[in-house]
């Protein structure tokens, strides 16, 4: 933990060293993937964790924003378009690496519980394939041509919980990917517009 990503949250969190706090709700509208990993790798283990995801991707693409430069975080902000946060598949991969599973989602948030505790309580665990929903939704302005980090599930599985791996080294484990997007208008009243992300050949 040499990158200073966590100090701002230390006064808000309890539960290191094996004890638990019950609920943690987290949204910062930009680098949720990277900061969530820092919180979990530091030893914090909420029983229920709610994290915002980027609904513009739906179930497609496992990506996150490029992390903010260390020491210059205040210079990078979300500007209201679809370049923010983390897609649902990437967030699920991260949470699984720390023993969590998704149990609920809406248009903004994914809710996770600790899998072992849920099984001990006899909870019925939904299939991960059901999250976050059937298709992408357009809730923000376009963000074509932006660079993302492609979150490989095997890399997350092998490296996310490695305590000695710094924030910057972890981020460097993932490849950059430039995505473009096209928005499609709903054909029926009441249906939502949807967005398709793609790479240029």
The largest sheet is:
4 strands, mixed
Backbone structural class: alpha+beta
Cα shape: globular
Radius of gyration (Å)? 17 Å
Kindly report the spatial arrangement of strands forming the biggest sheet.
1-2-5-4
Total number of strands = 8
**Oligomeric state of the chains in view:** single chain
Strand content: 15-25%
- Point out poorly predicted stretches: 1-19
- For the residues shown, what is the average pLDDT? 83
Characterise the protein shown here.
- It is a single chain.
- With 201 residues, the protein is an alpha+beta fold.
- The protein contains 5 helices and 8 strands; from the N terminus they run βαββαββαβααββ.
- Helix 2 packs parallel to helix 4.
- It is globular, with a radius of gyration of 17 Å.
- The N and C termini lie far apart (38 Å).
Key features?
alpha+beta; 5 helices; 8 strands; globular; disordered N terminus
Topology overview:
Layout: E1 23-26, H1 32-41, E2 48-52, E3 63-65, H2 88-97, E4 100-105, E5 109-114, H3 115-120, E6 146-150, H4 153-159, H5 167-172, E7 175-184, E8 194-198
Parallel strand pairs: 1-2
Antiparallel strand pairs: 2-5, 3-6, 4-5, 6-7, 7-8
Helix pairs in contact: 2-4
């Amino acid at each position: 933990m040499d990158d200073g990503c966590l100090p701002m949250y230390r006064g808000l969190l309890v539960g290191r060293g094996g004890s638990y706090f019950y609920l943690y709700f987290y949204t910062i509208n930009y680098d949720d993937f990277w900061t969530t990993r820092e919180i979990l790798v530091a030893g914090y283990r909420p029983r229920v964790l709610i994290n915002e995801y980027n609904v513009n991707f739906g179930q497609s693409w496992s990506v996150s924003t490029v992390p903010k430069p260390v020491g210059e975080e205040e210079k990078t902000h979300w500007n209201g378009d679809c370049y923010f946060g983390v897609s649902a598949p990437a967030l699920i991969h991260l949470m699984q690496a720390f023993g969590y599973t998704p149990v609920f989602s809406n248009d903004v948030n994914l809710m996770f519980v600790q899998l072992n505790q849920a099984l001990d309580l006899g909870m019925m665990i939904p299939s991960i394939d059901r999250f976050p929903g059937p298709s992408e939704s357009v809730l923000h302005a376009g963000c074509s041509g932006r660079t993302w980090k492609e979150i490989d599930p095997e890399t997350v599985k092998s490296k996310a919980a490695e305590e000695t791996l710094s924030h910057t080294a972890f981020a460097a484990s993932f490849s950059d990917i430039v995505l473009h997007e096209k928005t499609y208008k709903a054909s029926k009243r009441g249906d939502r517009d949807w967005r398709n992300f793609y790479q240029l050949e």
